[in-house]
Amino acid sequence: MRKERHQHAFTSLRLCTLCVFVGLAFSWVSLAHWLQLSPEVVSTNPRQINQQAANDDDPYPEGAPPVIGIREDVVTAGRTTEIVYATTSASTGQDIALLLHGCSHSALKFFSPSPSCSTCIGLSEEMQIARILVEQPSIAVVLAVTSQDRKSGCWGQQDTAHVQDAVEYIWKQVLELQTPQQPQHGRLWAFGASSGGRFAAQLAVEGIVQGAMVGVMSLGSALIKKWMQQSQPPIYLAPMPRDKRTLQGTLQDYSDMTRINNQNNLHKHAILDTDTCTPFPVTAVYLHQRVPHMTLIMAQQIVTELQTSGHMDATTGMLLKDPTKSDWRDILKATCGGECLHNQPLGPGVSPLAKALHRAWAFHEYCSEATLKALDFFHNAVS
Q: Which domain of life is it from (predicted)?
């Protein structure tokens, strides 16, 4: 009996020891797994910081997904330049997409409010452009720069040096591509609308960018003349036909740019796109996909109220009144109120919902639908 008790105790001891080792092994595996996956483990790599910010507890459970940017002030030779940039998570490319805002705007409009850019505003159409470019394999960084004239918000000759400072900062400090022995710069593409569109073309003429998308803006004969005297970098002209004044100017620009070779709109160095940036219907799905914090229920309420109030055609979904001038804000406040406008800022220049309606109306606005077409045109033009 004593012998059996000793054997039983010895067996129990061996089992306990085995359990301890198994427990320790499991603990180490769990710890390793936690260290690998825990959001508390913070990287100092800008690419990883940006990706981690997008993966943390989601502050955008409904509506358009966020576009996380990092805001910084670049100081060079006494010049200070506000930038916001996003690095792509899995890009093998080395190109930079430069985003140039219109008058009265800034770089803050292209990215969502976040810990890395607490002052960002994130308007729907601007964010959609950034969102599209961040997903392109040829793009390493999407960079937005703020113009120096904060009274008008427009671009001028004084901004050229600031843009160069910003781009140089991205090359050296973010992408780490430049070395004294072997500089490895990719290409720089500019995407601008209105004042930013003309400035994009100016940067192309000056050889600072390798291609420019010009939205809702005519360039004028002086800039066209300089373009023709240079190597004719690719220019993608994307007017909105509803904006008759800039459309006529853009048609004249294209005529001047292609007259020398009597080319059509497939000219290698300039293309005129009058088909993409046109009005389209406002649907609940569209608002849900473009506007942050916009649920499908809220979006459907908004569509219903706009139809009932005569702002939208109930059959086609097309806007009947210019949302930049109409009283749609007052209509929604008085009808569905907080039910359809929860978490929706409505002030001028800060409303993603307003921006979504402006794009659907398509008078003088950013046009995200032309972004990939312009990028493809750039690639083909320089290949």
A: Eukaryota
